[in-house]
Design brief:
alpha/beta, two-stranded antiparallel ribbon, 11 helices, 12 strands
């Protein structure tokens, strides 16, 4: 769906420049919806089909055939088929909703594999590209992360209009920058019931959370599933600390009033949490991000477990599936995860004390 958020303006120029003096009718949001469908009829989507969406993700009537996704190494995977069928007949019924928020300046489908997987298990997944407040590219600043959080709110409102959604069961998942924007969105929108972060930037840009003024992880009462990349050395940590937006409260330590499941993906580099970025990697680029001696097959296997744990988390907290909840509390080995792939830790929400009455409640 090609939509505009008419509550916000956006520069209208040939290059999307912030210096443009003209404004169009709203913020363009190319919206993708994955949904449970009836029996398959027709060809499934290919990587090339997804890549073609990038040409019109900002200017719906003026394709940019030379966009960076079309000219990337994804051309080598263009014929690879995924699972979804475009415009398939929806399954009857209403389903829980997942808003997916992509990485910084990324396409709505940078995790198409995960979005398709969730839809195949009874979720409606809605996503739009990552943009800045006034430019097509997003930068490390408060206005741009606020803009992506605003996109999430827009997509939630849009999801309410779909005939197959159950809005009483709503989660937001995000990779990287999208895993920062989803915290901003959840702090401002009580409709959000759970968060999933694929090595979310909330871990690296806590200074932006502090600067927001209205985003308080220590006050959040919803469950969070947080996947982290593999080891970060002290030297790498020093590099992060040079960013002015790094200094701030540690979000995971502050997340005490909502259940927290942290999954450490030991062989996963940060970009590996995007299935399409995995595909577009050159061998040299992979080597630059490689963790220890984990190879591409290891990262691919790890991604599959990320998808599975995401599904069980959503089943547990949105569908209230007791078997899924029990799965999350088992060790990776008990769940059949190969050795040296992941480590998990679960921290239940702490009771909240009401100072006037002394009564304790569990969120």
């Amino acid at each position: 769906m090609n939509q505009y958020d008419h509550s916000r303006t956006f520069p209208s120029s040939s290059k999307g420049s912030e210096n443009s003096s003209t404004k169009d009718a709203g913020r363009p949001l190319q919206t993708l919806i994955w949904y449970p469908a009836q029996q398959k009829v027709g060809d499934t989507m290919t990587v090339g089909d997804y890549v073609a969406l990038a040409a019109t993700q900002f200017r719906f009537e003026a394709p940019d055939l030379q966009n960076r996704w079309a000219t990337s190494l994804l051309s080598a995977s263009s014929n690879v088929r995924l699972w979804a069928i475009r415009d398939a007949t929806p399954e009857t019924g209403r389903f829980p909703v997942v808003i997916y928020s992509p990485g910084q300046s990324s396409v709505a489908w940078d995790n198409a594999d995960l979005c398709e997987y969730l839809a195949s298990h009874g979720y409606v997944v809605v996503a739009s590209p990552s943009m800045g407040a006034m430019t097509f590219d997003s930068d490390d600043n408060l206005p741009d992360v606020n803009a992506q959080a605003g996109d999430i709110a827009f997509l939630i409102d849009y999801a309410k209009t779909l005939p197959d959604t159950d809005m009483s069961k709503l989660a937001v998942a995000g990779w990287s920058w999208g895993g920062l924007a989803n915290v901003f969105a959840a702090a401002r929108d009580p409709r959000i019931d759970a968060l999933v972060a694929l090595d979310g930037s909330m871990r690296y840009y806590s200074g932006l959370i502090k600067a927001a003024g209205d985003v308080h992880p220590e006050q959040m009462h919803i469950p969070l599933l947080f996947f982290t990349e593999g080891e970060i050395t002290l030297e790498e940590l020093h590099f992060y600390s040079q960013n002015p937006y790094f200094a701030g409260p540690n979000v995971l330590n502050a997340w005490t009033h909502g259940d927290l499941l942290t999954v450490r993906m030991l062989g996963m580099p940060h970009p590996g949490f995007s299935s399409m970025v995995q595909r577009r990697w050159s061998q040299q680029k992979f080597a630059e991000n490689q963790k220890a001696d984990y190879d591409r097959d290891d990262v691919n296997t790890s991604y599959a477990w990320v998808a599975r744990y995401t599904l069980y988390f959503l089943d547990a907290y949105l569908k209230h599936d007791t078997a899924a909840a029990a799965y999350l509390k088992k060790t990776p080995a008990e769940n059949g995860v190969p050795k040296h792939i992941m480590a998990t830790s679960f921290r239940a929400a702490q009771a909240v004390s009401l100072p006037k009455t002394g009564i304790a409640i569990t969120p």
